[in-house]
Amino acid sequence: MWLPCRCTTKYVAASIRRGVSASFLHVLRRGRSSWNSAAFMPESAGFEGVSGRDALHDYSVSHSENFWAAVARQRLNWIRPFDAVQDCDLSQGRIKWFEGGKLNVSVNCLDRHVHTCPERVALIWERDERGSEVRYTYRELLEMTCRLGNLLRRHGVKKGDCVTIYMPTCPLAVASMLACARIGAAHNVVFAGFSSEALAERIRDAQSSTVITVNQGVRGGKITELKRTVDAAVQSCPTVRQVFVAMRTEKRVEMADRDIALEEEMLKEDVVCEPAAMDSEDVLFLLYTSGSTGKPKGLVHTQAGYLLYAALTHRYVFGYHDGDVFGCVADIGWITGHSYTVYGPLANGGTTVLFESTPVYPDPGRYWDMVERLRINQFYGAPTAIRLLIRYGDQWVKKYDRSSLTTLGSVGEPINTEAWEWYNRVVGEGRCPVVDTWWQTETGGICIAPKPSEPDAEIVPGMAMRPFFGIKPVLMDTEGKLLTSNNTSGALCMAQPWPGMARTIHNNHQRFLETYFHPYPGYFFTGDGAYRSQEGYYQITGRLDDVINVSGHRIGTAEIEDVVNQCSAVAESAVIGYSHNIKGQGVYAFVVLKKGVDVQEVDLSKQLNNMVSEKIAKYACPDFIQFAKRLPKTRSGKIMRRVLRKVVDCDLEGLGDLSTLDDPAAVQEIIEGHEKVLSK
Ligand code: WTA
């Protein structure tokens, strides 16, 4: 693996165009005593009569063009200024931002910081082997990116191509993404846990002729043969001409004619690489994600709008300041890794952690040991990991010094109250705000989160709460009518476009329109349900397909899970609706107990029913409770509800593609457990 040599003095941040962006950073100092919009957000200095967070939010949606123009001018470095702020029409699914503008994303993430602070650390690679972290400065990352950009160019990769990256979270993966951006190619990062078939499907759909991978991956002390997976995948990908192979371990792998040793070839390249001048709306990357059909969709994000939105949300949702160490533990194969491990932090000149390991390797103290060692200020993780760690007890957290932490983030699924409180009380010692951030691959960046807020404004556990600047959420009823009152639930839509949203589905614009714009004409439909409280705060109630209807009462499965999870014996749960003769739908709960809990299942079932009945209503009580050792999950940690639903419907034929499961054996256990429940 390419390690920093710390000896090159030759770097030229060619073609940097310095904007005013460097100068505003020093305004963002801590210790503000009261709210002052311009001090909080220097870009807002020219917004007339705006004082306070809520006023700034109002302005950002009512004067959306002014808001985004000011932010885009100041926060990004442009090769050519944009002519128009936006040209969007949600009813047509047309989304264009900053047209006429030209810029280079890698220059925004690297060169301009190299110009002002070349020796600042850009990446801290927290390798799987604990205590062996490696730091890369902005100068080193730029150099690595330029060599890689030149190498790709020499091998014929050009503007408009799409390079598939199948690598674990590591500096060369980041440099690969940035090298694509530098020369104008799009990237398609495929999570390195996907099977060869899933990888092949994505390579084919993206029509990549170039793949970048590593010989082997190392995660949780286990070796994965990534190059071998690529070999198998490219068998069915006639478009692939070349595969670049980096060395994560010493192990030599078989190299075919199309394979190129990445580090060896990089050494031959120059450390200066002319950045391509890209149009704002040129494609930056594709990222595949699952929809309600079996075929993954390649969501398309473009240059300026995406980068701006990732940078702005990173800065303000997490309260990231110059000099902080940002620790997002998501894999770069997911949108969270794209926006908050790579693009947001680097656009802001931040120091970002690349986490290669797992929360329990070599023991359940891994995250907090890392927080202590790297002095992480903002920690951003997933509820599923938090729930897992709760099972192991507080001592694994308390063993380590977490005094560097200022903000804790949560993403990817609803965070239940118990997990939220543990995260807040045990991990954050009650000092750190917990920001439950709601967003999607489609939205590019965080759309709803408790922060930024007025100083000392309340944060409600388990609620994403406040829309970010420029975001205007609305709720719709089942007839497609706008719900205007508070204390109400509905389908979550966005009434206005924002720069970070996806532009299309690669090769399938029709599917893009049908999924997101046709259900509620004039609005972007998120596919999620939400509740708006009396105070106007948003709480995500789960995917709409996870909403069940019991005797005419709507109930989010997440709401029932939240109650079940509050039981001290329960580690996690998944609630599924199933077809019921009388009630329409019934409630089926899968429950995983904490390690070492010794209770009678019958007693616990009664207790859980009582709790649900007490906290929600009797109709929400599970008809069946199945105790399981574990739940089937994707490799990113999401519970595969589709699989659970099929098991509960006794439709084993329809289980579908299980290749994205973390451990397919979990499904067999669930099927057997279900048979036992039915036979009782
Ligand atoms: C869910 C991940 C509740 C939601 C960034 C969304 C959440 C889907 C939250 C997107 C949250 C994400 N609370 N649910 N804070 N964050 N989700 O594309 O259902 O992997 O639609 O993006 O995750 O998942 P994706």
From TrEMBL:
Its EC number is 6.2.1.1. It comes from Poecilia reticulata. This is Acetyl-coenzyme A synthetase. Keywords: ATP-binding, Ligase, Lipid metabolism, Nucleotide-binding. One of its GO terms (biological process) is lipid metabolic process. GO terms for cellular component: mitochondrion. Belongs to the ATP-dependent AMP-binding enzyme family. GO terms for molecular function: acetate-CoA ligase activity; AMP binding; ATP binding; propionate-CoA ligase activity. It catalyses: propanoate + ATP + CoA = propanoyl-CoA + AMP + diphosphate; acetate + ATP + CoA = acetyl-CoA + AMP + diphosphate. Residues 559-638 form the AMP-binding enzyme C-terminal domain. Pfam families: ACAS_N, AMP-binding, AMP-binding_C. Residues 54-109 form the Acetyl-coenzyme A synthetase N-terminal domain. CDD domains: ACS (cd05966). Residues 111-498 form the AMP-dependent synthetase/ligase domain.
